[in-house]
């Protein structure tokens, strides 16, 4: 069964920008769009006096808002199949569950700070860290013109071919649907002396040095995706520096930034990694965070 694209909305400007992005992507890929709102009745007195105190009225407002949000995209894309669901539950676990049934989950993001709306504080990290499917974060004010020809799908590649397979797959699929170029970025730094081993020294010697070794590793990681998507143009970008800084240095030419993530659980909650965290907070384009296989 083909999975739909799912967009989470909460009425904010950011979430509506995410919904518009999700609708355009669904049209490109020939997929259905599912629009969801995570909601749980809140009867306590802390709620503003102008907000309904009874569950039925709150639920009706949520349903009406969701219907209006869906109407905003069906009017732009008459042939798009759109369904809506009000999901009862806490935002983090509800959106993680919704992502499991989707090809990707699309949410709104403020950038330069915490993810807004239902993704305040640690909740955003919980969704990104817990989702088993790609999560795309879209800024308020994102426009279709940002997807114009000449703007690239930028993807970070690191480690072995298997380490970045999920992110590369997503980047190539997206570029193929848009007729865009993939810029594959591999950043490298000088390792400490104690990191060298006889085996690694032999590999470096065979490659002709550190930078040629990194270029060879990137080429090998890209090869199966070049073969699978022969019509997608690829730019191989190898640069010395931290991965986050190198990716952000080319973000201005990107219509989408794709990064992988390997979530870590700590005593204070989920961590999504410094590269994904930095790109999410500082890149102006939409960002897709793709879990490692």
Automatic annotation (TrEMBL):
Residue ranges occupied by any UspA domain in the UniProt entry: 1-139, 162-291
InterPro entries in UniProt: Rossmann-like_a/b/a_fold, Universal_stress_UspA, UspA
| A Pfam family it matches | Usp
Signal peptide coordinates: none
Q: Give the protein family.
A: Belongs to the universal stress protein A family.
Which protein, by its recorded name, is this?
Universal stress protein
Which species is the source of this protein? Answer: Streptomyces cyaneochromogenes
